[in-house]
Amino acid sequence: MIDLSTWDLILPIGSPAQxxxxxxxxxxxxxxxxxxxxxxxxWAPVTGSHSGSSHYPRSEMREVSKSGSQRNWTWNxxxxxxSGKVAVNQVPSEGKVVVAQIHAKDADSPLLKLQYRxxxxxxxxxxxxxxxxxxxxxxxxxxxxxxxxxxxxTYSIQMNNTGVVTAIINGVxxxxxxxxxxxxxxxxxxxxxxxxxxxxxxxEGGRVTYYELQTKx
Length: 217
Fold this sequence. Notes:
Largest sheet: 8 strands, antiparallel
CATH topology: Jelly Rolls
Number of domains: 1
Radius of gyration: 16 Å
Order of helices and strands: EEHEEEEEEEEEEEEE
Strand content: over 45%
Structural class: mainly beta
CATH architecture: Sandwich
Helix content: under 10%
Shape: globular
CATH class: Mainly Beta
Number of strands: 15
Distance between the termini: 20 Å
C-alpha cells in the first residue's frame, strides 16, 4: 500500500489544473487517478489541461510534509531519496511519459527526469539530466532498453550531501554531480504521469501504474 499522506496530486483538468491536497488524497478516485488496492493508476490524455509553465498534461504527485506544506530540501541537507516500482501501460503518439522527477523550486525545468520512451517498436527507460538551470535541453545519460509496455521496473534516485545523484533502474546504477549553479535551489520529488504530448484525440495519452512508492529524507 502506497502512503499518500505526503503527496499532493495535480490533475489534467480545470484551468488552472486541479490540485488535490494530501489530506484528501487517500480514498480519492476519478478517471485520472484510481487506487486499485494493488497500485495507483494515473491517466493523462493529450487533451488534458496544463499546470504552471508546462505545455503538457499530467496526473502527477508532488511531495509535501506531514503538515501538508510543500516539502523542499537543499543539496547538502543529507541523503534524499525516492524509490518506486512502476509500469507504463500506454504512451501517446510522441512516445514519452515521465514517471519521476527531481524538480527545483522556482526553476522552470527539472534537474532530472525518469522517462519511458517508446521508439521503433520498443520501450526504453531513460534518465535525462539538465546540466545547468535554464538549459534548453536535458540529454539522456542512461537508457535501460527493451522494457515492454505494461512491464514493471524498479528505480531509486538519491542525492547525497555532496551533490552526487545516483539513479538505479532494475539494479543498474548511473551517477552525475550537480553543477554549482544548481546549489542555490531547493529541490523536491515528483512521481506519477507527466505525458509529453499535447496533440491528438481524447483517447490518446499516457497511462501509468505505480505499485510501490516511497521517499526518504
